[in-house]
Specification:
562 residues, alpha/beta, 9-stranded mixed beta sheet, 5-stranded parallel beta sheet, 18 strands, globular
Amino acid sequence: MDAYEYKAILISDFTLDNFAGYLNNDECSPRIQSIMAPFGQVMQVLMNENLDCWKTALELGIVWTRPEAVIDAFNKTLQFEDVRIEEILTQVDAYCQALQGLQQRLRWVFIPTWILPAYHRGLGALDLRANGGITHALMHMNLRLAQNLNDVPNCVVLDGQKWIASSGPKAFNTKLWYLGKIPFANDVFKAAVKDIKAGVRGLSGKGKKLIILDLDETLWGGVVGDVGWQNIVLGGHDPVGEALVDFQTELKALKNRGILLAVVSKNEESIALEAIEKHPEMVLKEEDLAGWKINWQDKAQNIVELVEELSLGLDAAVFIDDNPVERARVGAALPDVFVPDWPKDKLLYRQTLLSLDCFDSGFISSEDRQRTKMYTAERQRSQLKSTVGSLDEWLKTLHTQVIVEPLNDTNVGRVTQLFNKTNQLNLSTRRMTSAELSMWTSGERRRLFVFRVSDKFGDAGLTGILSMEVQQETLQIVDFILSCRVMGRHIEETMLSIAMGYGRAQGLKQVYARYIPTKKNKPCFDFLLNSGLARGPEDIFSWDLSQEYLTPPHIEVIRCPR
């Protein structure tokens, strides 16, 4: 459970007390405590940062409005006055400009889309027509809202219509509106809280990164060791077989988003892998799996070993198994692993997977899409390592290339993601949004370099961050971050050599780095102890720039211009 508590401001033209109650008291991570902006003063609150409500330290904003309350042209449309869609969208643009002003005041802003009650029929069957259709106007407004805020990293537009759909016909209650200016039933507010918390987890790097799957009766029907791969239930003209193919298809879609897939199964490994390789309707193949433990050992122990091999924490994993006994065992032994309840009915597998709210992320990068391929390449490196005598000999065989580039519009999304997800080799464990990161690096005496790593087995992508600040005659390394995928391959020393080279080029005398300990970043401390830097009081590590810090000889460094 994440003990951190976020402070949020609720901005609305309607009563949000019930929503605030659910938000403040929901026990799911993260904890959020909210304050109310002045009721019904949406534009005033957005535009005036000197109001009392902004004097509290806040991180989150939720701006939830009715369309007719903030877009006057739409209100006229509801009265069937003659209003052109261009006039409506111009007012939407102005509203978005006001929302963008929050990005300097808040870490993240959540904006639910605009909704009309289902009982409002508008023009009935003709309501999607351009000439006066209310639904037509509202769809264009929501699309414009999403388009305008798409490139504002810390403004997140949420699909409020999903909350209505999940709440059914009781989503709206006109009596609540007239009695308390509450447009929605409590089920809508509960669904909104769930979505917003999932969004915060994703944006803060707390989304799950790994799905660990059972095989028999989970990925396919039947026990492969008993019936043989030819006779397992998968695909074909069979409702269960079709449902399991669809389940595997959705798992593969998650893999394409950057979620790793792995297998822990009680089976004979050769028999299970043969089924994966040979069955004609098997969607998931060996190359889709980041790893597996297929044996007769305790699944909890296998999960621990597998997660360790993948250099992840147990809190990054989700375990899916049809057997309630196995789920109970893993849930009790490994409380950090998320073990969702799983239906007995295989026809519900796909729906249950799609309904999980633990895979949200703030950004999907090219590295995410290639993540499984990167782990496959890492397996090949490990196999090579076992055949080569010394570490240095092994590293020479990799032909490692490191590309150094500055922060720019192309890489800022992935850099922000790495900032907020990396825990182990992380000097200061700062957490920053894209906007905060760009603002920090705009300082004249500050520099930030990013590192891309590749070798003969493949491209590991953007895996390192080095930020520095000049302070008189010294250079402080503020952030030193490296993905666990490339740790121990002398990328760390290469990054230090870049820092030392920059300091020498600026005519400075010393470089130092202050290690700030957390529960997870001891690998960073261990590296610094063996890096050659001098350790001083308060875990400050320093280097005298009168001496050159050499780049490891087997690393080829390529510098990209600003």
